[in-house]
Amino acid sequence: MFRRRHEEQQQQEQQAMFAGPHRYQMREKLLSIGDDFWIETDRGQRAFKVDGKVLRVRNTLNLEDAQGHVVAQVQERMLRARDSMAIERDGQKIAEVHKALVNVVRDRFKIDMAGRGPDMEAKGNILDHEYEITQDGRRVAEVSKKWFRVRDTYGVDIEPGQDDALILMVTVCIDQMAGR
After folding, report:
1. How far, in whole angstroms, is CA 103 from its chain's centroid?
2. Rounded mean pLDDT of 34-54?
């Protein structure tokens, strides 16, 4: 009885997480091993915490909900020809972010969805945090500094019906790889 009630509560929390606000604010260039920071809603409420794990062979970041439950994990893939980071949930890879193309004006990242639907792509001015994430040619999220006046802060505007935690972790991966 208790176990089923606990599972139902977790399921309700997951649904609320994805049905909640869809614009988040993040601080740029604060992601390094050992650093923790909060991703807040556009109203300043804490929504997710990015927890950088230290003393690991690879760069590992956990995304926790406001109650401290791990909802996704990112692991840097070492010894690859190009930068990539894998996003996992419950021990299963759900996506992998690759740096696809770099040039002076625009960067492009490919997000392989590990058999969970069509792949995504992020393109635009990555370094200035002005880009879109698309899937099958339609926008699923926009990243921009224009919504916030606070220095070193940018917004992630996620379309309804998307997996907010996944999109936020994609954004974290891109921020990590673009800073190299």
Report:
1. 23
2. 82
